[in-house]
Design brief:
Shape: elongated
Number of helices: 2
Radius of gyration: 17 Å
Order of helices and strands: HH
Strand content: under 5%
Length: 79
Amino acid sequence: MDPVEQVEVTSNPRHWLLAVVMNLLVLAELCVAMYLAAAAPDEFTAVFVKAFFGMLIPTLIAGRFLRRRLQAAPVQAAP
C-alpha cells in the first residue's frame, strides 16, 4: 500500500491546489517552529516539538476535512 496518492491537475485542479497549499503551510510551520526554537537554545527540542506539532496537527485535520469536502462536491466542466 502506497501512502502517497497521485493528484492529477487535469482531473481535479482543486485537489492539486489543496496539495500545494498544504505543502506550503507545512513548510511555513516548520520555519516558524525553527525560529521559535532558536530563540530558546536551552530548550530547543521541547519548544520545537510543541510549536511544530501544535500547528501541524490542526493543519492536517483541516486539510483532510477540505479534501473530503472537495471529493463530495462534483467538479463542473466548463461548456
